[in-house]
Amino acid sequence: MTAVSTLPATSPGTPPLRMAIVGAGRMGGAVLQGALAAGVLAAEEVGIFHPNPRRLAELSERYGVRGIDDAELHRAERVLLAVKPQSFPDVAPLVAQRNALFVSLMAGVSAESIARRVGSRRVIRAMPNLGAALGVSATALAWLPEASHDDVSMARSLFSAVGNVYDVREEQFDAFTGMAGSGPAFTALVAEGLADGGVRVGLDRRLARELARQVLLASARLLETKHPSELKDEVSSAGGTAIAGVRTLERHRLRFALIDAVEEATRRAGELSREEP
Ligand SMILES: NC(=O)c1ccc[n+]([C@@H]2O[C@H](COP(=O)([O-])OP(=O)(O)OC[C@H]3O[C@@H](n4cnc5c(N)ncnc54)[C@H](OP(=O)(O)O)[C@@H]3O)[C@@H](O)[C@H]2O)c1
Q1: Residue 85: CB within 6 Å of ligand 1?
Q2: Which residue has the CA at smallest separation from atom 9 of ligand 1?
C-alpha cells in the first residue's frame, strides 16, 4: 500500500521521528491529542501514516503533525498501531522490522501474534476506553518480556496522558475489555433509565437527561473517596426515599444484571480474540 500524504515530507531539518502512528482515527487521534497536550510527544516528533489525505490534512491543521510515507514508517523506531484489527494484515508488512517498539491499541490481537507478524518482540498492548477523548480513560497495559523498561515507561506516559493506566496480565485483557471497555455502554443505559424515570414522574426530558448525567458525575466523584456501600448508606436515611428505591433495584436484581453483563461482554471479547486476523 502506498501512503498518501498532502503534508510536507521529511527535509534535512526535520527532527527525528519519535513515534509513527498508523491509523489515527478515533482512538489513535485521542491518544495523539492527549500526548501532545501533556507534552509526552512534540508535534514535530510524530509522523502519521494514514490512507486518507483529508484525515491527514485535518490532523496536520489541528495538531501540527505531518504525514509519513511507507519508507519513513519502515524506519520508525516506535510505532503506535491504531488501526482496526482487520486492517492489521495490510499494515504489518509495512511496519515489519526487528528492532522497533510496537504499541498496539488493537482489541483482540495478541502480543504474540503482533510479534510474529512484525518481527519484533518489543510489543506492548494497550486497551483504552472511550474516556481517552476526555483524558479519563482506564487503560490496561501488558507487554512481552522483551519490551525494555524504557519501552514500558514510554507507553505508560503515552496512556497516562489520556487517563489512568493499569498493568494487567494479558490473559486479563478480555476481562478488562468486558468491564472497563464495555462499561460506558452499561452506565449509558443506567443514565437513560434514570432519565426515563425522571420523565415518568413528570420532569421535562431535557432536565431529566441533564440530572441523570449530573447524578452519575457526582457519584463517580464521590466514589473516588468512598466505598460504594458507604455512599449508598449515606444517601439512604431510615425509612426514606433512597432506601425505597434501593429495595426496588434489589428486587429487579440490578447488581446481578451488571455482573452478568460484564461476564457476557468478557466472553464475547474472548470469542473475538479467537477470530483475530
Ligand atoms: N474506539 C474505542 O473505544 C476503542 C477502545 C479500545 C481499543 N480500540 C482499538 O483501537 C483501534 C482503532 O479503533 P478506532 O475506534 O479508533 O477506529 P477508527 O476510528 O476506524 O480508526 C482507525 C483508523 O485507521 C485508518 N486506517 C484504515 N486502514 C488503514 C491503513 N491501511 N493504514 C493506516 N490507517 C488505516 C482508518 O481510516 P478510514 O476511516 O479512512 O478507513 C481510521 O482512521 C482498533 O483496533 C480498536 O480495536 C478502540
Answers
A1: yes
A2: 106
Place of cell 502506498: 2
Where do the domains of the chain lie, and which CATH numbers do they carry? 19-174 (3.40.50.720), 183-272 (1.10.3730.10)
- Is the C-beta atom of 90 inside 6 A of ligand 1? yes
Question: Cβ(127) to ligand 1 under 6 A?
Answer: yes
Q: Is the CB of 87 under 6 A from ligand 1?
A: yes
Percent with pLDDT over 70 in the chain = 94
CA–centroid distance, residue 103 to ligand 1 (Å)? 14
CA distance 68 to 160: 26
Cα 53 to chain centroid, rounded: 24
Question: How would you class 211 by CB atoms within 10 Å of its CB: exposed for 0-12, middle for 13-18, buried for 19 or more?
Answer: middle
Residue type, 103: V
The Cα–Cα gap between 157 and 25 comes to 20
**197-244 per-position pLDDT tens digit:** 999 999 999 999 999 999 999 999 999 999 999 999 999 999 999 999
Pull the grid cell for residue 214: 449530573
Question: With contact defined as beta carbons under 8 Å apart, do 88 and 81 qualify?
Answer: yes
Q: How confident is the model at residue 172 (pLDDT cuts 50, 70, 90)?
A: very high
For ligand 1, the distance from its centroid to the CA atom of residue 27, given in whole angstroms, is 7
The model's pLDDT over 58-102, given as tens digits with 9 standing for 90+, comes to 999 999 999 999 989 988 999 999 999 999 999 999 998 778 999
CA separation for the pair 123, 221 (Å, rounded): 35
Q: d(Cα 152, Cα 245) in Å, to the nearest integer?
A: 46
